[in-house]
Amino acid sequence: MKYLKYLYLSVMISLIGTASVQARDLGEGAVNGSDSRALQNSGRLYEIWSGIGQLTLQSGESCSAVLLNTRNRQGKATGPGYLLTSGHCVLFQYGSARINLPMEATVTFKYFYDTPERHSQFSVRTARWTSLSGTDLAVLEVDATLDSLIQAGINPLNLASHQINESHDSLNVGAPQGFSESGLRLSACDEETAGTFIDHPGVFPLAMRNRCDLHAGNSGSPMLNRRTNEITGIVSKIADSRAIPEPEGCEDSSSCKAARFNYSYPANFLAACFIDGVFTSNGPDCALKPVELTVTEPWKLKTYVDRSRNTAGQLALPTWDFRFSLDAPLYRFKAVRDAKECKVPHNYSAAISTEDAHINTEIGPSNGVHALCIIGVDSAQQRLAVATLNNVFTSAVYLNPPPRVPPQAQ
User: Fold this and answer.
1) Of 354, 341, 324, nearest to 384 (Cα)?
2) Which of 45, 130, 183, 358 is a Cys-bridge partner for 113, taking CB atoms 3.0 to 4.6 Å apart?
3) How far apart are CA 118 and CA 153, in angstroms?
4) pLDDT at 365
5) How far is C-alpha 138 from the geometric centre of its chain's CA atoms?
6) 89 to each of 60, 160, 198, 253, how far by Cα in Å?
7) SS3 per-residue string spanning 56-101
8) pLDDT score of 21 more than 70
9) How deeply is 198 buried, as exposed, middle or buried, from its count of CB atoms within 10 A (0-12, 13-18, 19+)?
10) How many CB atoms lie within 10 A of CB 28?
């Protein structure tokens, strides 16, 4: 009886503790869009973010990275430590993805400026997966086990279980450069889907966007759910002009507005790639493959497209006119209005040879956003499982309305 009473009290205390953590504002009242602030951890108030660190590359440049919680179902840390960062920090080749790529880097955990004596540095020698094909993410393996990192007081973070597209309160914790307080900084903002059409070069249609106070070095840093501390995305592109007053007429320019956002990519799908604490790029629910898609005529890529008049004076729809090479023997494609549909296996074309690959179907007829989805396959019989579609390449254009026809003179 005493045991049951003790068990009941333990469960109640655990539930109360969980509720209080979830109810806690991890941003400590920070206003969305306000200036970032350096985190002081001499009182160990921010140990929950000790697993977010500075990733220093062989080139001397730096990004941010976060240690993933890859404990198995029994709650045991059985595998290596894994970092999540942005793919362009590892290999900046648009349209490419790599598996098991050797690299030379270090990560510094407990990266708080006021406690340099506690900084903890580890080597990183392998990118288990890095991609700039439809996303901008990388999984790196640390030269230490997850258990040893936890024993050293380094706290791993959980991936969010699902993607939230609507606006939600977020935090960013990263290691930007250019501050006298060299260490982690906290920023608050709301985050939402960027939508299919993003008038900003180098940003894929599946991105999220925010206006946190981010700077060089924040690439690879985690966007965090403000209540649960789960990773909702990884920062990819930082706003070019956030600190500059909005120029006159910016509201009327989609390019100007797009340049004033930061962009990140969700990574919740990667949870299926960790089996018993070990990253597996070709598991039952995870099929991350090397990709090498090269746009043959990048100078022809357009953001906005228009109808044209044929010889009979009739309006004709534009075509994709998308030429590319791909390191797979075959590809399949489809055009959609919402880029999220690129990860749905339905309505893709039959397999087509990648020799002289050229997609030239019409865009439209509806005005507005249209997205192109391309996925390489090894055979005509290969099934497009949801896991396989994590390798999809995406691009988008905006079809302008037809020009007005002037009224006929009476």
Assistant:
1) 341
2) 183
3) 10
4) 95
5) 9
6) 12, 22, 22, 30
7) EECCCCEEEEEEECCCCCCCCCCCEEEEEECHHHCCCCCCEEEEEE
8) no
9) buried
10) 11
CB 338 within 8 A of CB 368: no
Rg from Cα positions in the chain: 23
Closest CA to 215 of 246, 238, 185, 188: 238
Give the CA angle between residues 383, 386, 390 to the nearest 5°: 110
pLDDT at site 408: 58
Token pair listed for 366: 């509806």
382, 348 contact by CB (below 8 A): no
| 373: Cβ contacts below 8 Å, ≥ 6 apart | 333, 334, 335, 336, 339, 341, 342, 348, 392, 393, 394
Q: Are 92 and 39 in contact (CB under 8 A)?
A: no
Secondary structure letter of residue 154 according to DSSP: P
Tell me, what's the pLDDT at 11?
37
Q: Which residues of 161-196 are buried (b: 16+ CB within 10 A; e: fewer)?
A: eebbeeeebbbbbbbbeeeeebbbbbbbbbbebbeb
Length reported for the chain? 410
Q: Is the pTM of this model over 0.70?
A: yes
Mapped onto helix, strand or coil, the DSSP state of residue 322 is strand
Helix ranges restricted to H, 237-391: 254-258
CA distances from 178 to 52, 214, 267, 352 (A): 18, 11, 28, 49
pLDDT at 405 over 70: no
Tokens describing residue 391 = 């390798």
Single-letter amino acid, residue 313: G
- What does the pLDDT look like over 175-209, one tens digit per residue? 999 999 999 999 999 999 999 999 888 899 999 99
Q: Check: CB of residue 188 under 8 Å from CB of residue 226.
A: yes
Per residue in 290-331, pLDDT tens?
999 999 988 888 899 999 887 777 889 999 999 999 999 999
Tokens of 116: 């340099």
Average pLDDT of the chain is 91
Q: If DSSP codes are grouped into helix, strand and coil, which group holds residue 118?
A: helix
Query: Which tokens is 71 given?
Result: 């404990």
| Neighbouring C-beta atoms of residue 241, cutoff 10 Å | 12
Give the per-residue pLDDT at 2.
Answer: 40
What would the pLDDT profile of 23-65 be if each residue is shown by its tens digit?
Answer: 589 999 999 999 999 999 999 999 999 999 999 999 999 999 9
Q: Which two tokens stand for residue 191?
A: 């985050």
